[in-house]
Design goal:
By secondary structure, the protein is mainly β. The chain is elongated and about 165 Å long. A hairpin with a 3-residue loop joins strand 26 and strand 27. The protein is built from four helices and 44 strands. It is a single-pass type I membrane protein. InterPro entries: Ig-like_dom (IPR007110), Ig-like_dom_sf (IPR036179), Ig-like_fold (IPR013783), Ig_sub (IPR003599), Ig_sub2 (IPR003598), Ig_V-set (IPR013106), IgSF_V-set/TM_domain (IPR051102). It is found in: Membrane.
Length: 610
């Protein structure tokens, strides 16, 4: 015997071999089956272990409880005139039909069950076997039960009796980041043991509601598992939305931080499930209720950033104050946070200061570094969210002139404290002008002793002139231009004196010593001790002027480069005579030794002869 599964769509073996295996058997799912009045049902029927052609025919009969011995012909695969009068109109309209799945398997379909459709259903297969042997029909009991499922929307309305609820619909208007809560009541008075599945879904406003247009948000399955729909899955895992059962009949949907894309018509879809004798679960009825029409106003459409005053003119050292005003959702959403920053300049601008979502202030790098020190820059929140913010620079500098803008960013904070940016805005530009207090600096380099000889100390002087109404501090550095091959001369710093008067000495190629000192109010000196040919080059001094403000910060008022002077270590005259003298002495000494050796050799030779 084959397995004869009524649900299998795998073709049966060839009829010849089938006839050799055993008796014919017709398969139907086990009963009784419970289905709800007004819903659709399908009965699969198949035959196995038969002889003859692979295309088998089927006939369906119904035995009603009121006349259990009388068979009523419903539909046949071979005879269009087979249906009895009670079923003929339904067959002709397609409400009752048979669908062939394969040659030896078909499916009886009833599009809309009636109460009188309850009874015993028989699937019969006319014989094609050489001998009458086996089971030529099979029966299953169908019980048609009344629809006892109802769905209640949160608005005052009667229980749902059709496919959709009444026209009364709750209207909700929310701001982005607020919480949405919707309730759905589902109850069933079915006498059989059934399970309910509850799903919350949303469709676009004014869109027809159906499985194609309804997007599931989250649902409770018949086995009590909770699952979120496709685009809501990540938010469910993040804890932004949930579904919970309150009591025995009520289900609650909560979306903690709504988004503009969450707008639409929300529905509650309830399905009733029953377990058939073959252990499979079947959806026997489903209903849907419209819960609310939800509109979500985005923060981007409500966020406005303004700043003032539109124009500021002040002198160096005075305090600069600018105000930034934010307007957003009213009332403010509890999970929305703002970050505010001030920038100066065109484009993205240079950061002046920022106040993050946790209220921590950060000063831009240009306002706190080793060059300028740490300027007294503050950004303070004056009123509750979204609120007003004040930027204050205690001692303005000429370099603070420019166009300032306030930049605001709005975030929604998720349950796990993760921030999602939802909007940003910029204010109009504010013009800040500084009254001119120019610092004019000039530098002149020269050699007090034009001719420098090897081994001497070379002196280079840098005279500085300053025109300013403020106290100016000078930073001076000495540079030498070095030429390598045919390349452009490269500058190399030799030594420097900071604005605080701290000297820093580099390394000479010759390895000799050098020193820096100040020989006048505005005159700096560089000395190269024991100059050598490797010290040759063109030297210049570079001067940077710094102004210090009351907040102890520094401002670079300008830099200037002096003219260049040539350092060429000359050779001394005695050095030019020293080598010939040595050569002459060595030559004379060698000649004398040679003559003395010759005389001695001759004298010894004469002495031996004697």
């Amino acid at each position: 015997m084959g397995d004869g599964s009524p649900w299998s769509l795998i073709p049966s073996p060839p009829s010849l071999s089938a006839g050799l295996c055993g008796a014919r058997e017709v398969h139907l799912p086990p009963g009784p089956l419970f289905r709800v009045e007004g819903t659709a049902i399908s009965f699969p029927c198949s035959v196995s272990e038969y002889e003859g052609p692979t295309l088998q025919h089927f006939e369906w009969f119904l035995y009603r409880p009121t006349a259990p011995e009388i068979s009523i012909g419903m539909v046949s695969t071979r005879d269009p005139s087979f249906p009895y009068a009670v079923f003929s109109p339904r067959v002709q309209s397609g409400e009752v039909s048979v669908q062939r799945l394969r040659g030896d398997a078909i499916e009886l379909r009833i599009a809309r069950l009636r109460a009188e459709d309850a009874g015993v259903y028989e699937c019969y297969t006319p014989t094609t076997d050489s001998t009458y042997h086996g089971n030529y029909s099979s029966k299953v009991v169908l019980k048609v039960i009344p629809d006892m499922l109802s769905v209640l929307a949160p608005t005052p309305s009667s229980p749902l009796r059709g496919r959709m609820a009444g026209t009364s619909l709750l209207q909700l208007s929310l701001s982005e980041g607020q919480e949405l809560q919707l309730n759905c009541t589902a109850q069933s008075q079915t006498q059989q043991h059934t399970h309910l599945s509850v799903s919350f879904g949303v469709s676009a406003p004014d869109a027809p509601v159906g499985r194609q247009t309804l997007q599931e948000v989250v649902g409770v399955r018949r086995d009590f598992a909770v699952e979120a729909g496709g685009r809501f899955a990540d938010r469910y895992r993040a804890g932004e939305l949930s579904v919970a059962k309150a009591g025995s009949e009520q289900y609650k949907l909560a979306i903690g931080r709504v988004r503009p894309g969450d707008a639409g018509t929300y529905h509650c879809t309830v399905g009733e499930w029953i377990q058939d004798p073959d252990s499979s679960w079947q959806l026997i009825t489903e209903k849907r209720a419209a819960l609310a029409q939800v509109t979500v106003q985005s923060i981007a459409s409500q966020l406005a950033v303004s700043a003032g005053p539109p124009k500021v003119r002040l002198s160096a050292g005075e305090a600069l104050e600018l105000l930034c005003n934010l307007s957003g959702p009213v009332p403010p959403a509890p999970h929305v946070a703002y970050a505010v920053s001030w920038v100066v300049g065109e484009g993205d601008g240079l950061l002046v200061a920022q106040l993050d979502t946790d209220g921590v202030a950060v000063v831009g790098e240009s306002y706190a570094n080793s060059q300028v020190g740490r300027r007294q820059v503050s950004l303070q929140k004056l009123t509750p969210s979204p609120g007003s913010y004040r930027l204050r620079i205690e001692s303005a500098q000429p370099g603070d002139e420019g166009t300032y803008r306030c930049v605001a960013q709005a975030y929604v904070r998720s349950p796990d404290a993760w921030l999602r940016e939802v909007s940003s805005g910029r204010s109009q530009g504010l013009k800040v002008q500084m009254k001119s207090e120019a610092v004019v600096v000039k530098a002149y380099a020269w050699l007090p002793i034009p001719a420098t000889y090897r081994g001497d100390t070379a002196e280079l002087l840098c005279n500085i002139s300053v025109e300013s109404t403020q106290a100016v501090h000078m930073a001076v550095s000495w540079w030498v231009e070095v030429t390598v091959g045919e390349e452009e001369p490269q500058g190399r710093m030799v030594a420097s004196v900071s604005r605080e008067g701290v000297a820093e000495l580099g390394r000479r190629v010759s390895g000799g010593d050098m020193s820096l000192d100040k020989v006048g109010p505005q005159c700096h000196r560089l000395r190269l001790h024991g100059v050598q040919p490797s010290d040759e080059g063109r030297y210049h001094c570079a001067v940077t002027s710094w102004v210090r403000y009351p907040d102890r910060s520094w401002y670079n008022a300008g830099a200037v480069k002096s003219n260049s002077v040539a350092v060429y270590p000359y050779a001394r005259a005695v050095d030019t005579l020293f080598i010939p003298l040595i050569v002459g002495i060595a030559s004379a000494l060698f000649t004398g030794i040679a003559i003395l050796a010759t005389i001695t050799c001759c004298f010894m030779r004469q002495l031996r002869k004697r």
